Amino acid sequence: MAGYETGRRNPSSSVVNNICKEFHVSETWLRTGSGEMFLELSRSDEIAAFVDGVLHDESADFKRRLIAALSHLDAAGWETCTISASNSLDEKLIRNLLLQGAKIDAFGVGERLITARSEPVFGGVYKLVAVEDEGGNITPKIKISENVAKITTPHYKKLYRFFGNDTGKAIADYLTIHDETVDDSRPLVIFDPDATWKKKEVYDFTAKELQVPVFRSGQLVYDLPSLPEIRRYCLEQVDTLWDEVKRFDNPHKYYVDLSQKLWDVKHGLLEKNG
């Protein structure tokens, strides 16, 4: 090689051909220095080069199996084949693949959807929040703990979601006592239940009750949607969230506020039993 670089030796035609083939270099440029250095490969040439490289690489077992599978496709299969990816995928890996231009049609997400990698154990438990007597009278109950996060919100409750009429985007969720009704025809002041000085007036909004009965007295009273309908509904609901809430890095907090009446009940029980 040093002889070629210093001009003491001239490469033979076979050497020139090997260099051009290996590095996709223009023979004209290599011999004369004129024109483009690299050849522009067609899609077919790229595939051929990839296959040739795999077949000569003893470590490329997966690629060999991929080519073997592709070799069984007919002409129609090459046009309609769906490319899927799986194996420990999460939202961050999927985002990075798409940003890198990966031509993937579907992602298989399993282990990191069933259990979060950061929280492999689901810590949700049932807690008593109210007792109803035979006369239909409801007595709220609360669990008190030195760990503030474990203090429950008492009572039989109702959950609303507020949507801005001008944007269609979700503003906040609003937890109330079961017999409360939100009047969305007039402005409403909501507040952070953990930092009550943080207040916001919402107006020109629609309050949607989120809970719907599925079973009553052991009987199914709900029209079960199909899987495509569930998927479509989930996508629609995610789209109502602002991008600032959905971003992976430093997302904005989406608030779940308590009504004044529910907050008063909770703190009344805390003061009484704390």
Outline:
By secondary structure, the chain is an alpha+beta fold. It is built from 11 helices and 12 strands.
Key terms for this structure?
12 strands, four-stranded mixed beta sheet, alpha+beta, two-stranded parallel ribbon, nicotinate phosphoribosyltransferase, 17% strand, 35% helix
Topology:
Layout: H1 2-6, H2 13-23, H3 27-32, H4 43-55, H5 61-70, H6 75-80, E1 84-85, H7 91-99, E2 106-107, H8 111-114, E3 130-132, E4 138-140, E5 157-164, E6 170-177, E7 188-191, E8 199-202, E9 205-209, E10 215-216, E11 219-220, H9 227-239, H10 243-246, E12 256-258, H11 260-273
Parallel strand pairs: 1-2, 6-12
Antiparallel strand pairs: 3-4, 5-6, 5-9, 7-8, 10-11
Q: Find the CATH superfamily of the domain at 146-273.
A: nicotinate phosphoribosyltransferase
Query: Residue share in helices?
Result: 25-40%
List SSEs in N-to-C order: HHHHHHEHEHEEEEEEEEEHHEH
CATH T-level topology of the domain at 146-273:
nicotinate phosphoribosyltransferase
Question: Spatial order of the strands in the main sheet?
Answer: 9-5-6-12
User: Tell me, what is the CATH class of the domain at 146-273?
Assistant: Alpha Beta
| Tally of separate helices | 11
Distance between the termini: 85 Å
Give Rg in angstroms: 32 Å
CATH architectural name of the domain at 146-273: Alpha-Beta Barrel
Specify the biggest β-sheet. Answer: 4 strands, mixed
Structural class, by secondary structure, is: alpha+beta
Compute the number of strand runs: 12
Share of residues in strands: 15-25%
Taken from the alpha-carbon principal axes, the silhouette is elongated
Mean pLDDT across all residues, rounded? 84
* Poorly predicted parts: none
